[in-house]
Amino acid sequence: MKSNKAAKLPTKSSEQIKVDMKKLDSVIRRALTEGFRHPCAVLGVLGRRFAVPSKSQGFPFYRVLADCGKDGLKAVFVSGFYEGEMRTSIADVKKNSYTVSRLLKAIEKRTARAAAKLAGEKKVKAVAK
Which of 34, 66, 88, 118 is 20 to 30 A from 42 (CA-CA)? Predict the structure, then answer.
């Protein structure tokens, strides 16, 4: 049975909604801490949509990748903030899925670039002495 909520949505939407990112981050961190009994590192954003709900694009959401230590990588999905009630769900992720592998490669490149920059600065300081 389809919900009546989806039938009332406009076909398309380009109007953005305002989202309190501090509140969104606190909801994510609270869900991870409650779920795993320890804080987990949020690695990055897997997907987001902050537009008014529509039939073609659906409802607003925010999805992040978290490293939960021995429990592995988890995806945290937050929805419902358009209605004013944030709901979260935590799921396992596969490292080879498109969005996860893309984010992990970007983090790896960023780390390598920072390490190379740091090594270059150390070399310059050693030559200057």
Answer: 118
Q: Where are the domains of the chain?
A: 4-93, 95-129
**Do 35 and 91 form a contact (C-beta atoms < 8 A)?**
no
pLDDT per residue of the chain (129 residues) written in tens, 0 to 9: 455 666 677 777 778 888 889 999 999 999 999 999 999 999 999 999 988 888 888 888 999 999 998 999 999 999 988 777 889 999 999 989 999 999 999 999 999 999 998 888 777 666 666
* 64-73 residues labelled b (16+ CB within 10 A) or e (exposed): bbbebeebeb
**For the whole model, what pTM was predicted?**
0.78
Question: Which helix (H) or strand (E) covers residue 47, if one does?
Answer: strand 41-49
